[in-house]
Amino acid sequence: MWFRNLQLYRLGQPFGLSAEALDRRLRKQAFKGCSRMDLAASGWVPPLGRYGEQLVHASNGYFMICARKAEKIIPASVVRQLLDDRVAEVEAAESRDVYRREKLRMKDEIMIDLLPRALTRNADLYAYIDTRSGYVVVDTPMPSRAEDLISQVRSSLGSFKATPVRVKRTCMNTMTQWLNGERRLPQGFELGQECELKHPDPNHGIVSCKHQDLLTNEVRNHVRSGKYATRLAIRWKERLSCVLQDDLSIKRLYFEDVIREAECETEAGDPASRFDLDFSLMTLELAEFLPRLLKALGGEEIEE
């Protein structure tokens, strides 16, 4: 189970629950699916999917969890067409106009009629709690979805103090200084071949570079003209690469072959064992990478 996008959270206090105790808490809000008349439903499912029953997959102090959200698919265009047809029938039969309040009632009736027959779409969202270092790592490119998961954990536990990780210097300034040579990248880090540069004045445009040497004068001239880096590709120790965003989101995380080779060299004959191996390799690698990245960005800002 290899994460592709990271949203980072800092726990406000040590996580005191064991994997078994956390599982019991989450089980009270286990996913049950949408009933015939539900438009959406959410809950916890086993991270191992059909290969597991536990709602918490634990390995070396890392607890993986998985939230599932189900939504009924009712296209707005279908509802709109059915509503238009029903309004036209009433106006023709009764020779009168149908106004807003009555249209809203008709729309509700259409939704109630369609719900039991609608298809359901499921979306799973994975995260893990690092009980040693006090981080929560959510696998999503969207901060809003990460917030939904944190809120769901908070609802299941009653209290869960977790806030987005902050650094002492803004990511935008540090990434820009790496590009213009004002600040050297720490040992082990190097620039990738992608960045996005944006000027504070919207009229001065946005420059997007891909598959390009970022140390060229062409890129630095954009920085000297006043543009700031809002997205930057970086590599670390030839072990992983990612695209760092100015909001501290990590996207397109890729673990290099040197890590994948360790996976291939280890025997794991069944899907559950393979999942556990991947999870262990990933968390151990991120446990080394994330603190070094935060230090490279000026150090984590811890709330008192």
Please tell me about this protein's structure:
Strands 1, 2, 3, 4, 5, 6 and 7 form a 7-stranded antiparallel sheet that branches. This protein has a 5-stranded antiparallel sheet with strand order 9-8-10-11-12. With 304 residues, the protein is α+β, with helices and mostly antiparallel strands. The chain is built from 8 helices and 12 strands. 27% of the residues are buried. The chain has 3 domains: 115 residues, no CATH class; 41 residues, no CATH class; 126 residues, no CATH class.
| Gyration radius, rounded | 24 Å
Number of domains: 3
Number of helices: 8
Content of β-strand: 25-35%
Structural class: alpha+beta
Helix content: 25-40%
Which H/E pattern describes the elements?
EHEEEHHEEHEHEEHEEEHH
Q: How many beta-strand segments?
A: 12
How confident is the prediction overall: mean pLDDT?
A: 93
Distance between the termini: 34 Å
* Largest sheet data: 7 strands, antiparallel
Uncertain residue segments: none
Question: How would the global form be characterised?
Answer: globular
